[in-house]
Automatic annotation (TrEMBL):
InterPro entries: Transposase_17, Transposase_17_sf. This is IS200/IS605 family transposase. It holds the Pfam family Y1_Tnp. The gene is tnpA. Transmembrane segments: none annotated. GO terms for molecular function: DNA binding; transposase activity. GO terms for biological process: DNA transposition. It comes from Scytonema millei VB511283. Residues 12-129 form the Transposase IS200-like domain.
Length: 132
């Protein structure tokens, strides 16, 4: 498989990350249409901040993303935007999320660079999360 690199004015890079985060108290609230809307919102945010979402799966109690992020933008900024904007939009559109949770997302998240395992293995792992 040919290695794909991206570049900006100063950097040639290939920075892929597996990111996972959960709703507050790991509540199973990402269902009944919330999951579909969350996918749309995350795609929209990714376009705005020029982050490539390579794979995405929304489980009832957590979110999996495989993303490629410009290192000069920073993966922490991307996660902050994903969580902040999606919380705001979802809580406006789904009022029941306001009554059940003080905030939509927990403060923490999991992040792992993708380098040790082949990209296809991680993509398959994310794709098959719903079957587990």
């Amino acid at each position: 498989m040919k290695h794909q690199f991206k570049s900006n004015k100063n950097v040639v890079y290939s920075c892929k990350y597996h990111i996972v985060w959960c709703p507050k108290y790991r509540r199973s609230v990402l269902k009944s249409g919330v999951d579909i809307r969350l996918k749309e919102i995350l795609q929209q945010i990714a376009q705005e901040i020029q982050v490539d979402i390579l794979e995405m799966e929304i489980m009832p109690d957590h979110v999996h993303l495989l993303v490629e992020v410009d290192p000069q933008f920073g993966v922490h900024k991307a996660i902050k935007r994903f969580k902040g904007a999606s919380s705001r939009y979802l809580r406006q559109e789904f009022p029941h999320l306001k009554s059940r949770l003080p905030t939509l997302w927990s403060n923490s998240y999991f992040i792992s660079t993708v380098g040790g395992a082949p990209l296809e293995v991680i993509k398959q792992y994310i794709q098959f999360q719903k079957e587990v």
